């Protein structure tokens, strides 16, 4: 129903506001990434600093089209998570990237 509604609204020309924070939580990303504290996984702050001014590159990474730059030695763990993002639209990936980058 939600999908149908979204498709209908999209067809009708409404831009649906996509919430990057909601996506980050609903896709399970928050289970590993803390806002500011580095654990086994880099914090959102550390990722935002590494990708400052590189939003397009971050979107490419989320699509699986760019190499990791934050902690390449642990990329195997992160790589497995990218499949959760395969179904996202470009607008959703952009919102997700903007949410991550807001943690500088
Ligand atoms: C099982 C734990 C885990 C989950 C869940 C997880 N990540 Fe990660 N993530 C990591 C680890 C470990 C790294 C460090 C390796 C790396 O830099 O790629 C990382 C790195 C990253 C990076 C930096 C990539 C770079 O350039 O090095 C981004 C961006 C990222 N994660 C986004 C996400 C998003 C979005 C989600 C939700 C779909 C997510 N992560 C879910 C463990 C996780």
Please tell me about this protein's structure.
The chain has one domain: Cytochrome c-like domain (Cytochrome Bc1 Complex, Chain D, domain 2), CATH 1.10.760.10. The protein has helices spanning 2-11, 20-26, 44-50, 55-62, 75-79, 90-101. α2 (20-26) crosses α6 and α4 packs across α6. It is globular and about 40 Å long. The chain contains six helices and no strands. The protein is an all-alpha fold.
Give a quick precis of the structure:
47% of the residues lie in helices and 0% in strands.
Number of domains: 1
Give the name of the CATH architecture.
Answer: Orthogonal Bundle
List low-pLDDT spans. Answer: none
- For this structure, the quaternary state is single chain
CA-based shape: globular
**What is the N-to-C succession of helices and strands?**
HHHHHH
Q: Look at the helices and sheets and give the structural class.
A: mainly alpha
Alpha carbon gyration radius: 14 Å
Mean pLDDT metric: 90
Largest sheet: none
CATH superfamily descriptor: Cytochrome c-like domain
Report the bound ligands by name, code or SMILES: heme C
Q: What proportion of the residues is helical, as a percent range?
A: 40-55%
Termini gap: 37 Å
* CATH class value: Mainly Alpha
């Amino acid at each position: 129903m939600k999908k149908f509604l979204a498709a209908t609204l999209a067809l009708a020309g409404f831009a649906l506001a996509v919430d990057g924070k909601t996506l980050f939580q609903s896709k399970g990303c928050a289970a590993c990434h803390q806002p500011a504290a580095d654990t086994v996984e880099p914090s959102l702050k550390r990722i935002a600093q590494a990708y400052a001014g590189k939003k397009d590159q971050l979107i490419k990474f989320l699509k699986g089209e760019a190499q990791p730059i934050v902690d390449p030695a642990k990329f195997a763990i992160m790589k497995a998570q990218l499949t959760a993002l395969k179904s996202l639209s470009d607008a959703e990936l952009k919102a997700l990237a903007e949410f991550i980058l807001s943690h500088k």
